[in-house]
Amino acid sequence: MNMLSPVATPVVALDVGGTKIEAGVIAPSGDILARQRCETRPHAPDLFGDVVALVREVSHDFDVAAIGVGCGGPMRLHGERVSPLNIPTWRDFPLRHELHGAFGVPVFVDNDAKALALAEGVCGAARGLSDYLSMVVSTGVGGGIVLDGRLLDGRDGNAGHIGHVNVLPDGHPCECGSRGCLEAETSGTAIRRMTGDAPKMASEEIRRRTGTLVGRAVASVAALLDLDRCFVAGSVALGFGDIFFASANEAAADYARIEHARGLRVEPSGLGADGPLVGAAAVAWRGLSS
User: Fold this and answer.
1) In a domain, 258, yes or no
2) Which of 24, 116, 171, 229 has its CB 3.0 to 4.6 Å from that of 279, i.e. a possible disulfide?
3) Is residue 165 located within the same domain as residue 245?
């Protein structure tokens, strides 16, 4: 996927996660000109005030064309209302409208994992590919799907939310209200709940289990959508490293048996730490170009 900035001025990129909120100013070339972050206060009634202060701090020396946001879901189309599962204080929160009111520039909002999928095609491991799944296994689990060179949106903008594919019918309760969702079994939040410790302390058994369940979910998506590549980012997946990816690929080979899904590969993201910000900028570029 080739997505270059349609404007000659920078954009603000805002990544709203369950653990941290990061803002940056991104040049049309994709270079990060400035960045700041703060801790997410998921239960704070004035969380939006933190966001406004962060964006003002990072952008005060720049003339920016727009704000692009990657935010946890679910959400309504174009981020008119967001309800990140890991931020209980935001339920049907009008994020796009509030940001536009605060800064007066065009604002474009999308799911953070979909933003990451855009970035993967711009400057990550998916450059030159027209069909792939991009996902993140971190505090939560999400994904974005690119088919025929186009990021899928779905009815309300939530297409690709692989975190709520069921992998264990009688598994752990999920924040969405179901049981056994991939997010409820493999996210950092889920691992901490299951083990009583931080994911970085997880045993080899937990690391293998996490990879296996991710591979199982990816195999289902590959069979459904005729994909053979999946790129995974996030602190849990990348932190678990080779054990995670070996287990994910073993499970993918076991479960993706229909002919068009054979050869499915689950690989690390090529984005590094800048992926979420570049993805949020790509959300702005996509919005400005359309």
Assistant:
1) yes
2) 116
3) yes
